[in-house]
Design goal:
Helices cover 34% and strands 12% of the residues. The protein is of the alpha/beta class. The strands form four sheets. Strands 3, 7, 8, 9, 10, 11, 12, 13 and 14 form a nine-stranded mixed beta sheet that branches. A hairpin with a 2-residue loop joins strand 15 and strand 16. Helix 7 (111-127) packs across helix 18 (447-471) and helix 8 (165-177) crosses helix 9.
């Protein structure tokens, strides 16, 4: 039999191909605990709206969501990076990682996004698409949020075929779980909904039934869930190990920062000749020498450099010896020259995806299973009984990923902080019913269902503790109201909760976008935003008396070409100039080797003004890990490729005192604090 019109894009043929596929028709596969996967967050929301017959309000024919990319990590046409929403080889902590499986969608299965997803879907069921109680929309009226009142909503769910509660729950199970919902879970939902209906005089039961079903593992995955009747172990926060506190903050300027307009040659070998070469090669994108902040530097081709005129706070930190620069630094596989760099590079050069990924991994040969450099620090130090907090702000980052099960999984926290879970609960016992729907499972239960239930219940308890801790923090510094400013402000809040969280080490990843300047050479606004955010962050850390305990390092995908393109912007480069700051940083220096020739004849200058890096990130992070407290015998576990650049005269490596002030104090067993 033929289905469809035989024309490209025929929906009938697509549906037929899906439903008739052997996997869709196999009853055996559904019983396989390793078959299936986690559903994508946005598809869960859209699935509820379609199945429950969402109808827009007459005054709002177009359905609009609010900030979904931040709330749940996914939105159409709103990718967080050029890599998409997921890490393709991600192995999460828990049963999936224990089984040696990958689960890209688990990247978004973190505390904040789990809470936001459930809150938003509860709000959709109770108030329609609105802003009520952390909903996914915006209120269109001025009425107070009232259960079952949709006056503030731009649309609502209209399917309520509620002849009796048991039949209704069965219909919901068919619509939203394809019938996978267990008999036990159906009974829990029906009983609780009947009790709620009794209290609310028969009007709220359908809403309560839907809300409870939206927490079940069968809804969030394509697995069966088989409970074993046991109670899950309750989440307990870590106990402080009494080591002194340190935090490492990683700032990614994504897109490729034009960093040769950040650190510019000014007076070199007693003349302006190198600046003149810079100006000639840069053409229309050059910076006027008189517009620059002048800084002094020793041991470089230039005794004076110029900083972009927007970097007032960066200039101040440098002159106070609290910030240093890394010159001509970047992702590079092994020592190379202009003649052999292409053959020597394991990383695909000049592309956003490969270069930014490697700047987060610092592991070109994948010797540690696609982990991030910060995640490996957490792995080796967790083994030495340090207690960790690991946070990305707004977006999950590969930099924080360690080996599954070796250290606490990183959490993603919104720049706006955390939200209380289910603050408008329909029943005083609703959270208990949610726990019952997600209780411990048997060994032959679906691993994806188990992953959801374990992570979700963990999220509820962890969010409650963190939400309470954050509510007691205050910020004295006036942070700028830009994306990086709000992120660093949240980092400041989180640092204040370190004692409540019981940690002695924190890792933070923040990201500022917009540096892919193919069509414009003007980065002044971007650098001004960066500078104001960094200045406020430094001031707040000093007020909090943790300035000496926090080091912040800034990276980017790559620098940009010296030569402008025909559109007035610049294209993807390679080696660039970056910065690191903090109270323990040996600031007031430019480390590495700044290029001494900006013409095509330069020994490290490639086509169109791309610099071959002479300092590898491996060499930088090995010393940063040492400051952070990684034992010397485990530094190669964190930076497995750093040995490639040792004893290579053309490439820069560093000792501890090159980048940090003071000696490493030893606490026990060679572990630095």
């Amino acid at each position: 039999k033929t289905f469809g019109s035989s024309k490209y894009g025929c929906l009938e043929a697509t549906i037929a191909a899906t439903l008739l596929d052997r996997e869709a028709r196999s009853a055996i596969l559904e019983a396989d605990p390793f078959q299936g996967g986690l559903k994508e967050p946005l598809l869960k929301v859209i699935g509820v709206m379609r199945s429950m017959e969402f109808s827009p309000a007459g005054s709002r024919p177009a359905t609009r969501f609010n900030d979904m990319a931040v709330l749940i990590g996914e939105m159409a046409h709103d990718f967080p990076t050029v890599f998409g929403f997921y890490l393709p080889s991600y192995e999460p902590n828990g049963v999936i990682g224990d089984a040696g499986l990958v689960s890209p969608e688990s990247v978004l299965l973190d505390m904040s996004k789990n809470i936001n997803l459930l809150n938003g879907m509860f709000s959709l069921a109770r108030y329609g698409l609105s802003g009520c109680f952390n909903g996914f929309g915006q209120n269109v009226g001025w009425n107070p949020c009232q259960l079952g009142n949709f006056d503030n909503a731009s649309g609502k769910l209209t399917y309520v075929d509620y002849s009796d509660v048991t039949t209704y729950v069965d219909r919901l199970a068919t619509l939203l779980t394809a019938g996978r919902l267990s008999d036990e879970s159906r009974q829990i939902i029906a009983k609780s909904s009947w009790a709620t209906d009794y209290v609310y005089d028969g009007t709220i039961g359908p809403i309560h039934a839907l809300s409870l079903l939206l927490t079940t593992p069968e809804f969030h995955t394509n697995n069966l869930a088989k409970k074993n009747g046991l109670v899950r172990d309750e989440y307990k926060p870590p106990e402080n190990s009494n080591n002194s506190y340190k935090a490492l903050v990683y700032i990614m300027l994504s897109g490729g920062c034009d960093s040769f307009n950040v650190l510019v040659p000014y007076t070199c070998n007693g003349t302006t000749a190198l600046y003149d070469e810079y100006a000639s090669e840069r053409g229309s994108v050059k910076l006027d020498r008189n517009s620059l902040h002048v800084i002094s530097a020793g041991g470089q081709v230039c005794s004076e450099f110029g900083l972009h005129g927007s970097l007032n706070n960066i200039h101040d930190l440098y002159t106070k010896s609290e910030l240093l620069f890394f010159a001509n630094t970047g992702v590079i596989t092994k020592p190379s020259t202009k003649m052999n760099y292409w053959q020597n590079s394991k990383t695909a050069l000049f592309g956003h995806d490969s270069m930014q990924r490697e700047a987060k991994r610092i592991n070109p040969y994948d010797s540690t299973a696609q982990t991030g450099v910060l995640g490996r620090m957490a792995d080796v130090m967790t083994a030495d009984n340090y207690t960790f907090g690991s946070f990305s702000i707004d977006w999950h980052s590969e930099a924080l990923v360690g080996k599954a099960g070796m250290s606490p999984a990183p959490s993603t926290v919104s720049q706006h902080g955390t939200n209380a879970f289910n603050s408008d609960s329909l029943s005083v016992n609703m959270n208990n019913r949610i726990i019952a729907l997600n209780e411990a499972t048997s060994a032959d239960s679906g691993v994806f269902s188990e992953q959801w239930s374990a992570e979700m219940l963990h999220s509820l308890l962890k969010n409650e503790a963190l939400h309470s801790a954050l509510s007691g923090t205050t910020i004295e510094t006036n942070f700028p109201d830009n994306h990086l400013g709000r992120q660093l402000k949240m980092v400041s809040h989180l640092i204040q909760t370190r004692e409540e969280r019981g940690v002695d080490r924190d890792l933070f990843f923040v990201e500022m976008k917009g540096f892919d300047t193919h069509h414009s050479s003007f980065i002044g606004d971007l650098l001004s935003q960066y500078d104001s955010a960094v200045g406020a962050f430094a001031d707040e850390l000093k007020i909090l008396n943790v300035w000496n305990d926090v080091t912040t390092i800034q990276l980017s995908d790559f620098a940009r070409t010296l030569a402008p393109n025909s559109g007035g912007g610049t294209d993807h480069g390679w080696g660039g100039n970056y910065m690191m700051f903090g109270g323990n940083v040996a600031g007031g220096k430019v480390k590495g080797e700044y290029p001494d020739n900006f013409t095509p004849e330069g020994s490290v200058l490639l086509d169109r003004g791309r610099f071959l890096p002479t300092t590898a990130w491996d060499s930088v992070f090995k010393v940063v890990a040492e400051w952070y407290g990684v034992p010397s015998e485990k530094l190669n576990d964190v930076c497995p490729n750093a040995h490639m650049f040792e004893n290579e005269p053309a490439f820069n490596t560093f000792g501890y005192s090159d980048l940090f002030i003071g000696a490493r104090r030893q606490l026990r067993g060679g572990n630095a604090v």
